[in-house]
Amino acid sequence: MGLPRLSRSEGEECLVSPIGKAYAYAVSAVLLWSTAASAFKLTLRCLTPLELQAGAVVVAVLFLAVRAAAAGQLRELLPATPRDVARSALLGFLNPFAYYLVLLAAYDRLPAQEALVLNYIWPIVLAVLAVPLLGHPLGRRSVAALVVSFGGVVVIGTRGDLATLRFSDPVGVALAAGSSLIWALYWILSVRDSRDDGTKLLQGFVFGLIYLLISVAATGTPRVVSLRGAIGAVYVGLFEMGVTFSLWLTALRLVDRTARISNLVFLSPFISLLLVHTVLGEPIALSTIGGFTLVVFGIALQVAPPRRSSV
């Protein structure tokens, strides 16, 4: 008896393992995230940070709601308990409200290359926050990683002027570095929340949209934006937020250990810098390269597995 024949779709499905699919989703997410810095900077030429954020979050909420409806999960939009409401309200305040509010303000003040690198110190900030929030010890390696990455922040923030330590834009540097603090806090609280990731994301974005609408109403009458600004907001809402978060969550669900794909995130700043130079025409400064090297080395110190002692 011969082997049963497979239809073309069945055969193709067998050829692609869950790990292969996970990497495909993860790489797609990383590539899309890599375009964010350039998209932010281009769109901020037409919109204020709050306008860009509000438009993008509206698009992201619509996408996530349509995705949930297609999966028959729209009922999950309503939190089940008052505790779920409180958790979603807090997560939504951190991301997308506070995180993107601070991050886009940083991009509005700094060159894109500086803002994106300073934002990527979040793994180091995460290790520090894990001490009081998760009870993790802060070992010597983490302290060394913190010092090295902070040195990278100083190099970028001063644009290499280490003699005077005069920051080129102290507010912009503080905003970009502060965004990493908000993201790390959001990540820790989200991990401690055992609800479905897609549900948490959608509920949090709905609350974030509510905060944004209140902010827009409080800061003045909304104005008519240009077509270029609207296209930019739609792009950010889809490919920095909605579609990309969905791709990443799908990738995480397909693997048994998140470490298999999580380190792919660190490819994003390298690709982002290339796009910033190519799309925006920003010459990449030596101080950015030097500072980025220190930041990456600090992250590598933090995430590298401990060395086994020889027997």
Description:
With 311 residues, the chain is an all-alpha fold. It has one domain. The protein has helices at residues 8-15, 18-34, 36-43, 49-70, 82-109, 112-119, 122-134, 140-157, 170-192, 197-219, 227-253, 259-262, 268-280, 286-303. The chain is globular, with a radius of gyration of 21 Å. The N and C termini lie far apart (54 Å). Mean pLDDT is 84; it is low at 1-14.
> Helical content, roughly?
over 70%
Strand content: under 5%
Largest sheet, in brief, is: none
Domain module count: 1
Low-confidence stretches: 1-14
Mean pLDDT: 84
Taking the alpha carbons of the first and last residues, their distance comes to 54 Å
Written as H for each helix and E for each strand, in order along the chain, the element string is HHHHHHHHHHHHHH
Question: What is the overall silhouette?
Answer: globular
